[in-house]
Amino acid sequence: MVPLLNITPNAKFLSILVDCLQLLAFQHTESKVAILHSGGIQILVSLLQQFDYPKLLLNTTRLLKVLSCCSQVKSTMISLNAIQVLTHHLGSNSYDIVSNSLTAIRNMSDAATRLHGLDPLVQSLLNFLASSKDVALMILSAGILSNITCNNEYNKKTAVSLNAVPILLTTIQNMIQHPKLVEPCLCALKHITNKHQDMLLAQEQMRSVNGLAVISDLMSMIPRNMMVMKTLLGLIRNFCSNQLNSAHMRQFSIIEKLMQVLYETYTQIQMHGMISLDDTKLTDIIDACSAALIILAKEPTNQLLMKKLDCISFFVQMFYSPVSNIRKAAAILLAELSSSSECALDIEQQPGLLQFVQENFYNQYGNIKTIAELSANGTPNASSTLILQHVSTMMQRLQEHNAQRHMMHQQHQMSQYQYQPMPTSQSNQSLVQPVIQQQQQQQQQPTQQM
To answer: Is residue 423 reached through a cis peptide bond, with omega within 30 degrees of 0 on the bond before it?
Structure first.
């Protein structure tokens, strides 16, 4: 059937052939591969460029949508510029042609992260998000935008230049009850605010259109969708890495809300074990929350805020967890906070913490274990090694702050015994007076000789 597509220029006959191929290929991998090996992909892409017969375009886009589900076929479709050709049909007046084209592009987009020159596609996707009222088309558009901006600096910069930030934020605000749309929009924002030359500009655009307020509102939503939350936490982490955002994040209580999400997720794990919600592992939420807090904990102002919020006692609870990822996150957080003298004192005063560290991380000689000693005890994995490194850092900083406090205490005591002149007693005056009289007589003698 595939060779017949090259025989006739009759659009109606071609439409019937393509429709038959679509019926054969639907949910049948062998037929899809047969079309590929027969050279059918190149012919189908050519049909979209050569004809404007609506029925043929509809059937061809439907067949390409079906073929794009096959991992063996999609790479060939991409190499034959199927994405660019389908982009041209996103302006069609036919809803079905647009829907088929978007679905095919979405199916290919996860394998097209290295493609450049997709400016018309990015513009079309943003137009759908800005003006369409059809949630299905908007979900497809956001999904494609998320995929093609992943690890692709050119597409990220293109999206920023085409005002993707305000469009995505507006979409999130207007469609906040549709997590399947909110999640890819957040994912696209996460991509375009990180790892490219214009990322600071993208973050500035988010601040200028009150994007941090939107983030704060999303974190407060109950019930939480964990897939949305995981992506949101990745976006927050981007903002944590830029000190220009610190004051704004405190303004919108981002640290408090991160702690709330962390506490609730940790409590769920304690109560129900290692479960998944909304196809998201709860440990992934712990990791994402902790990653953002670790960056924030490097700043002195945030350290004092975390101390005020009593975060340290909660991090110590996490440190006791048998779950390796949770213990690792707690160790890193405590190590970061221990750089502050106020936080270090609070850590040192936590009941049972130092004893727990000595029992689990110190050797028989009273020294903190080395990686070799840790391996000898049967735990030679990367996570436990990282925990040991940060516990070592924490203990070293605690000792340094303790020594500094001791030195200051000694200096304060020394200042209490500064030298003060002793008052002259009567007995001392009786010893000093003859000396003074003798000095006066010696000064008068030369005058008498003259």
So the answer is: no
